């Protein structure tokens, strides 16, 4: 009998364990992780030059989850990172962000914070955004960097192991054990086969990769939830010179717009100055584009996501499957690879050819992306909203929507299933709690860490 089973070793699960151990060092905790320990998480594409289709993907699974291996940015404002502040209150959210940030510093995070100390320049950028009909969210960011984030989370992994947390890697949660409305444990499948693990409390913190699995579990066990919005979009790449002032002043300029004719919310996300476009793989061989940036190694380009938020109404209740199918269409057109297209070709209604990429100022940092036509896969509503948004941003940042700006697809965010919970993260099933991006309440490293920290704090007071 464990005190706590934590399914998933991403930021929310990690910080839940950290805080619980601080309050009750004798707690008997087991963490189940589908992937590998952080010291064994290596993408063979670096040496092979192409994705080898690791199952599970070493970028999206393993200790510290997908976020730490993408870029490692900690957003230090409650305005960024999902809807958790609506559940717990904005003041409580900001206070906990500040507390969790100090914990990151204790484990080796860079003390420098991006986006502070340039008030006059930020005012000018905001003014240009307002004139373009956009909202600028200037959020301070602590940039860990892809390689430094791995060092930091390795230190946390060792800390948890030394404190007595049982780590089970290459172990997947197959199902929840629920009897009479109470969660009694989980059934897990690891290297030694299936096993039932009984626990007083079960924490599901499976991240974006596990959002689809959690949605299925909610349906099977009648855990109250509702379909939330889904983000579908592209990752764009341009020369650093185009967006240099935003990179230097804000590091990540978060812009939001509601362009016609559909007025869907469109936003920028995960900006990587001097970064690299990357590929990550999900279950079923789905290839999705992402981006990261290192502390030391830099490219000539900046990449960022442009995400269009889609809300659905009854009777439709499968937004994750909807996004996955769009992703598979993109993969089909790219023969299993990420698609890339020049923005000028999108406007001209033609596909991009490989030789055209070689003539451009912008050289793709994802070399095995396939030149093609992303408009043949992305829905009309999505594509029209993205085009309108890019043209609006171009008024604030000239060159943003130039002909040679590259668009990679698909960029998908799987956190649309929202678990019904109260402010203490109680679900409709007793002793079952859901945290992080898979819960539908957070987006990104910091807010997922905050949710885990608060859960650990509560468990420390109750166990």
Architecture blueprint of SSEs:
Elements: E1 2-7, H1 11-23, E2 29-32, H2 45-48, E3 73-75, H3 84-88, H4 90-106, H5 119-131, E4 135-137, E5 141-143, H6 146-162, E6 166-168, E7 172-179, E8 182-190, E9 193-204, H7 211-221, E10 225-227, E11 230-239, H8 244-249, E12 254-257, E13 266-272, E14 276-282, E15 286-292, E16 301-310, H9 319-333, E17 339-342, H10 343-348, H11 354-358, E18 370-371, H12 380-396, E19 406-413, E20 417-419, E21 432-434, H13 445-462
Parallel strand pairs: 1-2, 1-9, 2-6, 9-21, 17-18
Antiparallel strand pairs: 3-5, 4-12, 7-8, 8-9, 10-20, 11-16, 11-19, 12-13, 13-16, 14-15, 17-19
What is the count of helical runs? 13
Give the overall shape, derived from the CA principal axes. Answer: globular
Distance separating the two termini: 13 Å
- β-strand number: 21
Structural class: alpha+beta
Describe the fold and architecture.
The protein has about 475 residues and is α+β, with helices and mostly antiparallel strands. Helix content is about 30%, strand content about 25%. It has 13 helices and 21 strands. The strands form 5 sheets. The chain has an 8-stranded mixed beta sheet. Strands 1, 2, 6, 7, 8, 9 and 21 form a 7-stranded mixed beta sheet that branches. A two-stranded antiparallel sheet has the order 3-5. Helix 1 runs parallel beside helix 13, helix 4 packs across helix 13 and helix 5 crosses helix 12. The radius of gyration is 21 Å and the shape is globular. The model has no long low-confidence stretch (mean pLDDT about 95).
List its traits.
single chain, 463 residues, alpha+beta, 7-stranded mixed sheet, 21 strands, 32% helix
């Amino acid at each position: 009998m464990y005190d706590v089973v934590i399914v998933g070793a991403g930021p929310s699960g990690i910080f839940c364990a950290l805080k619980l151990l601080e309050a009750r060092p004798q707690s008997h905790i087991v963490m189940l992780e589908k992937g590998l320990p952080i010291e064994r998480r290596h993408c063979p594409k670096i040496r092979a030059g192409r994705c080898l289709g690791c199952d599970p993907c070493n970028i999206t699974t393993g200790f510290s989850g997908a976020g730490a291996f993408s870029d490692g940015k900690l957003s230090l404002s409650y305005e960024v990172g999902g809807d958790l502040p609506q559940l717990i209150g904005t003041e409580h959210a900001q206070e906990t962000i500040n507390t969790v940030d100090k914990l990151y510093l204790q484990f080796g995070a860079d003390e420098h914070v991006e986006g502070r100390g340039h008030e006059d320049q930020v005012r000018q950028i905001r003014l240009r955004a307002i004139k373009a009909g956009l909202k600028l969210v200037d959020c301070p960011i602590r940039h860990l960097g892809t390689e430094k984030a791995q060092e930091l989370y390795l230190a946390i992994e060792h800390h948890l192991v030394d404190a007595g947390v049982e780590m089970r890697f290459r172990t997947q949660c197959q199902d929840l054990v629920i009897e009479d409305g109470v969660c009694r444990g989980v059934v897990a499948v690891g290297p030694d086969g299936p096993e039932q693990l009984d626990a007083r409390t079960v924490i599901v913190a499976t991240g974006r990769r596990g959002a689809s699995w959690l949605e299925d579990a909610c349906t099977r066990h009648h855990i109250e939830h509702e379909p939330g919005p889904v983000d579908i979009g592209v990752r764009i790449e341009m020369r650093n010179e185009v967006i240099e002032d935003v990179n230097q002043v804000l590091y990540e300029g978060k812009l939001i717009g509601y362009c016609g004719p559909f007025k869907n919310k469109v936003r920028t996300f995960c900006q990587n100055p001097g970064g690299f476009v990357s590929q990550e793989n999900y279950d079923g061989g789905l290839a999705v584009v992402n981006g990261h940036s290192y502390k030391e190694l830099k490219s000539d380009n900046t990449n960022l996501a442009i995400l269009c938020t889609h809300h659905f109404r009854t009777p439709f209740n499968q937004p994750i499957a909807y996004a996955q199918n769009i992703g598979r269409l993109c993969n089909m057109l790219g023969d299993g690879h990420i698609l890339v297209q020049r923005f000028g070709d999108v406007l001209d209604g033609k596909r991009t050819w490989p030789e055209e990429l070689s003539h451009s100022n912008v050289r793709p940092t994802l070399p095995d992306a396939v030149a093609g036509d992303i408009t043949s896969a992305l829905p009309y509503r999505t594509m029209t909203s993205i085009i309108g948004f890019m043209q609006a941003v171009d008024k604030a940042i000239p060159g943003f929507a130039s002909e040679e700006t590259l668009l990679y697809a698909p960029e998908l965010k799987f956190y649309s299933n929202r678990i019904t919970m109260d402010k203490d993260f109680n679900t409709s099933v007793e002793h079952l709690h859901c945290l992080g991006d898979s819960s539908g309440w957070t987006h990104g490293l910091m807010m997922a860490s905050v949710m885990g920290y608060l859960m650990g704090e509560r468990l420390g007071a109750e166990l």
